[in-house]
Predict the structure.
Amino acid sequence: MNYNKKTVKDVDVKGKKVLLRCDFNVPQDKNTGAITDDKRIRAALPTIQYLLDNGAAVIACSHLGKPVATFDSYVKKQVEKGKDPATVTEESWKKSLKKLSLAPVAERLGELLGKPVTLAADVIGPDAQAKAAALKPGEVLLLENTRFEKGETKNDPAMAKALADLTGEGGIYVSDAFGAVHRAHASTAGVADYLPAVSGFLIQKELEIIGGALANPKRPLVAILGGAKVSSKIGVINNLLEIADTIIIGGGMSYTFSAAAGGKIGDSLLEADWEDYANEMVKKAADKGIKLLLPVDTVIGDAFAADANSKIVAAGEIPDGWQGLDIGPETIKLYSDAVKDAGTVIWNGPMGVFEFPAFAKGTEAIAEALSKTDAITIIGGGDSAAAVQQLGFADKMTHISTGGGASLEFMEGKVLPGVACLLDK
Ligand code: ADP
Ligand code: MG
């Protein structure tokens, strides 16, 4: 995939209506609907402000959560959940949609921009059309949740065209929703068939830094892979085996590697179906001359709990009734040494159950080691980003990807439909 894409700076936006796909999929309080973290809205501000400052009118759009777009599918879903179809009303469906309205986002965005943001009552319907037609340069309109339209997730060309038509003559599509670029939906990819399509600043940065590290890394390139499961990281391991100089394995998935090598792992996380694969990976790395590091010791607990009793044992020597919940001190030393002289470090997946303070040391020590290197440091993956933030190292990293699933697919070397659809430079 070509990562060198045109950006908002490569097109003339003056006097144009710009359809801007954002990632406003914000977390909300279950009861009040209040936005609990507006980071994603703030992240969109530089691109929006640039467009406004340069004379564009901005028609912003985003999905929020997983609304069910038709009453029929809503009934089906409720029945699957065990509800009697006779009790599922159209009213309850509409209520479920209302909960996923972008109204709180429009309000927050308006506060952050310091100017009112109008919310359309629909996505491509009469209200969106009328409000888009009346929109002036310097003004911002926000469409309703794109997933209120059933054509969104199906990447329906009719919906994509209707979105494009909102921009009138000479419109432009700008994508800045990195968190959604791995999805081929009408508002993330399909719409680019009908409008010139470029990236905003968020996507530009992701492409420059992650794309740069994958295509032409400053070496040595060290990949740190952890997290819960081998099975969810196969694609990443495979792709990084093609480009990394060193691969470091930690977290829950390391115990499957340990078991595959004949170690005793007690009650640790094990994916028995993936043991052969783990052995293959170790062999492949050796054949390619790639250094593959596995834990030499591990912190174990007598339960999966924050207050579990803990002790340190050698890797592969975990007694029954105990489970590995973090890497041990010798492993921390080994791994910290391995990143010291790196040119680039890509990190995906925590080294242990960092959510429990007693088992967060490994993840914290690796974050600290990264903060001390001169390497380009890239964090991908939702939980990894959360861990680095929670442990206070966020501002010490070169780049923390804003997309969980999207950054994983990026690291797997997959084509991202929401990037592939943008104009090449
Ligand atoms: P990311 O979202 O960054 O891709 P993952 O979702 O793969 O990361 O993994 C994160 C989860 O892995 C965390 O919730 C963490 O608690 C869990 N984890 C890490 N080490 C272990 C372990 N030894 N046993 C069980 N779970 C673990
Ligand atoms: Mg995760």
User: Anything to note?
Assistant: The pocket of magnesium ion (ligand 2) is lined by residues 381-383 (CB under 6 Å).
